[in-house]
Structures are given as C-alpha cells and as structure tokens.
Amino acid sequence: MRRLAFLLRPGWIALGLVVVAFTYLCFTVLAPWQLGKHNRTSRENRQIEYSLNTAPVPLKTLLLQQDSSAPDAQWRRVTATGHYLPDVQVLARLRVIEGKPAFEVLAPFVVDAGPTVLVDRGYVRPDQGSHVPPIPRPPGGTVTITARLRDSQAVAAGKDPFTQDGVQQVYSISTAQVAALTKVPLAGSYLQLVEDQPGGLGVIGVPQLDAGPFLSYGIQWISFGIVAPLGLGYFVYSEIRARRREKERQAETAAPEAPAPPKTVEAKLADRYGRHR
Fold first, then answer.
1. Which of 155, 171, 208, 237 is the most buried (most CB within 10 A)?
2. How far is CA 199 from CA 82, 102, 186, 208, in A?
3. 223 in the same domain as 114
4. 61 and 36 in one domain?
5. Does Cell membrane show up as a keyword for this record (predicted)?
C-alpha cells in the first residue's frame, strides 16, 4: 500500500478523474453520437437509392389521414392530385443550395379526398442581400404533382418565425410550425417537388450517396476510451518502478562498509617479519 500512496496526491487524483470522465464520455456520448449519425446517414442513403429505382406511388397509400406521417418512406416518389392554396405561402430562409444562399418556397396542397400536405415548391435566390424576390404564384385549379416524401424537420432552437418583405419566414421546414403560422392543418410529412412539376421553382436535388466519416469517428472515440485508462495504468506502473529503483539506490548509498575480517596468526607474522627483511 505504501507504494501506491502517491496516488492519493492531488495531482494524481485530478489526473485519474480526468481519465475516468474522458473514458465515460467516449463510451456514452461521443462514440454513440458519431455511430448514430452513421446509422442515420446509411438509412437515408438506402431510402434515396430505393426511391431512385422505384416508380412513384399515390400519396394516399402512404399518408392515410390528415395527421399521418411516413418516416420509413422518406425520399419515396409519390403522386398527388389536388390544388394549391395560392394565398398561403411561407419561406424557409438561410438555405444553401449548390453553394449559394436561397429561400425554399412552401405552400399547402389539398389532395383530393386526402390530407392537406405542405409542398416545397423549390428554391429562389434572394435579392440584394436577404430580400425576398418576386415569386410566381402556383397554378390554380386541379393539378397532379410528383414529389419526394420528406420528414418534417426539427424546429430551430432560439429562432422564431418572423415576417419580412410581407412574407412569413421560418428557419426549418417543420410542418407543425408552418401549420400553426398559416392556420392550415398539415400532414406530418411534406413533399419536395421533382423537376418539371406544376408550381415548381428551382429544383432541389437529392443528397449524394455518401456515408461520410461518422463510422471511423465513432471507432476512433471507442479506441480513445480504451487507450486512456491503459495509458494511465502504464504511467502508474512506470512511477512505481521509478520509485522502487530510487529506493534501492538510496539503500545502497546509506549501507555501512563491512568491517575487514581479523587477520590470522600467519598473516600477522608475515606482516611483522616481512617488513624487516
């Protein structure tokens, strides 16, 4: 126990607590965070790939009622027949499309004998900084659209909707938030128009099928969580060995010289008579 007494010093205690906390974060926060992002990205890539190779289906087969959503069918191409609400419009601001700022134009679409869904008509570029440009109205009357089904986005924390240039603007495409702003009940999922559709604007493409670096990052955090306590153990072992060697050197230095053994009679006579020759 005396050899380990140095571990109770404040410096070693602090180092031990840091290592324990870091290891805990690696296994419970950092690694799961990156692995979770990898799983979500992989899931979305599978959904996109499936949608690219599958024919569109009627929207009403996936959204059965007004308050329904279809998270398992995100990016799936669907068709819907109905009409836009032309006097209701919301812009999603601070979007970046093809490396440039943009507004995404959102409008409710009433499906015949089906739910009312939010439609992302596409994007427009801002005028003179962040001003809203003229936006063409959607067509009147009954139209049939083809779009990709999208999940509602989380509301941006601390960023409330506001009105600028006479248009209501939001920071995320949350169907619940847009429904509250427009007073129009909306389904839980929304639609993103593909190319050449009635009411369409600048086409928003699908993300590239790239899993990203999240899996390798997650494995790295797991490795760090394993290496950190092993490194602390190595330092403790090295410190114990160094202290042991230091004690051995001190013991050797402090030990008295052993007395010379008594001389025999023969040695005494040799010394005495040898000097007189």
1. 171
2. 12, 17, 19, 25
3. no
4. no
5. yes
User: Residue 158 class from Cβ within 10 Å (0-12 exposed, 13-18 middle, 19+ buried)?
Assistant: exposed
With a threshold of 0.70, does the pTM exceed it? Answer: no
Residue 57, strand partner residues: 78
Q: Establish if 203 belongs to a structural domain.
A: no
Q: Which amino acid is at 196?
A: D
72 with 8, same domain?
A: no
Q: What is the DSSP letter of 26?
A: I
Indicate if 105 and 218 belong to the same structural domain. Answer: no
The answer to whether 121 and 200 have CB atoms below 8 angstroms apart is yes
Number of domains in the chain: 2
Three-state DSSP at 157 gives coil
Q: Is the pLDDT of residue 275 over 60?
A: no
If asked whether residues 5 and 26 sit together in one domain, one would say yes
- What pLDDT, on a 0 to 100 scale, did the predictor assign at position 13? 78
DSSP reduced 3-state for 146: strand
User: How, if at all, do strands 77-84 and 162-164 pair?
Assistant: unpaired
Q: Quick check: 106 and 172 in contact, CB under 8 A?
A: no
> Tens digits of per-residue pLDDT, 242-252?
777 877 787 77
Q: What H or E segment, with its residue span, contains residue 159?
A: none
One-character DSSP codes across 91-130: EEEEEEETTEEEEEEEEEEEETTS-EEEEEEEEEPPBTTT
| Amino acid sitting at position 18 | V
Do 148 and 73 belong to one domain?
yes
Residue listed under structure tokens 């995404």: 104
